[in-house]
Amino acid sequence: MTYIQEGVRQCGRTGSGFFSNQKGSVTALVASTLVPAIGLGAAAFEASHLSDGQDLLDRAAEVALVARIAAERDGVFDPLLAGEDALNRSLRGLGFLRTNYRLREDSGVLVLEAEAEFETELLSYIGVPTYRLQSTAELPPSTRPVAVSFIMDATSSALDGGGGADAVGAFRDMLSFIDQANGEGRVTASLVPMADRVRIATQNRDWLAFDPGADWDGCLEAREERLTGAPFALTAAGPDALPFLANTATDGLYRSGPRRICAPAIVQPTDDFEHLAGTLAGFEPAGQGRFDIGLAWGWRMLSPEWQRPLGVDALGNERRIAVLATDGFSDIYRYEAGGGEADILGYNRGSTVAFQHIADICRRMREDGIELHVIFLSGNDAIEPTLRGCTGTDRRFHEVFSDSDLADAYRAIALDAVRSGA
């Protein structure tokens, strides 16, 4: 049993430090100092500010825990510094003046205790410029297999925003961590590169309604359905129930003809994580982006209706996790899927129709029991509220500005993937 598995086997995660070990001291501070000095309304504002800081510290502690354990696993010269660097990087520029942490083992449970000095707002006017926050993160038990589907934006703007060697390495580390924590052989992952359309392996031509011929390269049309309130819906129905149509027109920009740009072929569920990382490393810019198509294929990779077509066996009671990574830029909806010029939010900024399609698929994926993470590559701010809403919880929305931020997001996803109880 590995060091990670031993910790995972026996431990769980505490609740937010603000509402457990910090609640009493913050309440006393507000009651004894702020309320008499500046009134209840201002006190509530400061308490909310401190609560936000606590949430940030809680999340940073989880990221540091994964980084610290991964560094020890990989034989890094100084794993202590690796954890400290991850903690500080997560909190940089957010009002934290000083941080510290320690990792300890308690009856086989790996525990990371973090503390930080956090800048106050109104308290600074009465001589209290900082407040000490604490957080505890524990590596939790995971008794269930995990199936993960990664939906990766392969358009040029997204690839400019992240995807270098460091990011690919962090992607590989994330999969390795989940695999070791859950017990090797209990994790499968798939990769859905998305552009204007999605490509499948050509040997899967039996998923199509008609044979497209020998020259077909795997590029598919969207397979839209008319549902109540959703005339262009995309679903996880299997190919036996609802087959696909090929996109067989000649190559060209999608504006000038029926051809839509396809990204590399989907990597179907596998435990070959090196193959997944290698595919990600080989991404080249492709098209404008239909995020709803990518999401629908990510859903299909996790759907019981697709186990036979994909040739995979259910692991039994597995957690199903989808991760969408995108910068949110897209211009394609002015030409298809019910969009119109009046609906456009600006060049390459999508449309309200596009965002509604995304929100609808996210909702149906969550109703199907899939946990959704979004990695937002700090791009199209118009889509940010939709992407936040996709996850159903802020802790699964990861906004990144650099490869180091992306690595931290992968670490947070890794820890969430091994946390029991979802």
Helicity range: 25-40%
Tell me which CATH architecture of the largest domain applies here: 3-Layer(aba) Sandwich
Strand order of the largest sheet: 10-5-4-11-12-13
Tell me the count of domains: 2
Q: Which segments are poorly predicted (pLDDT under 50) over 5 or more consecutive residues?
A: 1-28, 250-259
What CATH calls the topology of the largest domain is: Rossmann fold
- Overall mean pLDDT: 76
Report Rg: 23 Å
Order of helices and strands: HHHHEEEEHHEEEEEEHHHEHEHEH
Question: Summary?
Answer:
The chain is an alpha/beta fold and 422 residues long. Helices cover 38% and strands 19% of the residues.
How would you summarize the topology of this molecule?
Blueprint: H1 3-10, H2 23-38, H3 40-73, H4 79-91, E1 96-106, E2 109-119, E3 130-138, E4 146-153, H5 156-160, H6 165-182, E5 187-194, E6 197-199, E7 225-227, E8 230-233, E9 262-265, E10 267-270, H7 273-281, H8 291-302, H9 307-310, E11 319-326, H10 352-367, E12 371-376, H11 384-391, E13 397-399, H12 403-418
Parallel strand pairs: 4-5, 4-11, 6-9, 11-12, 12-13
Antiparallel strand pairs: 1-2, 2-3, 5-10, 7-8
Helix pairs in contact: 1-6, 2-3, 3-4, 3-12, 6-7, 6-12, 8-10, 10-11
